[in-house]
Amino acid sequence: MMRETREGVTLAVRAQPGARKTAITGLYGEGEAAQLKVAVQAPPIEGRAYEALIAWFADFFSLSRTSVVLISGETSRSKVFLLRGMKRAQAEATLEKAIE
Question: What pTM does this model have?
């Protein structure tokens, strides 16, 4: 789900567009193939869902919008984001607080 790279942390996400509000809803899959399941308020039309996720992750992880980059999955429910400048331990701690 999360890997540390030279630039920051990559985060595998399973988006569920069209939800009432944007929020983490759990995990999708197991082990190395696990993804963070996130309900997204925006519809999956013309990139609105992934743009909404970029804004939401920037706020959630206290990053600038330019620090959250979609690496893959523009038209798929499965997406990978790069959180530039973030360390894995910091990202995991932020996620653990939200999931508790």
Answer: 0.93
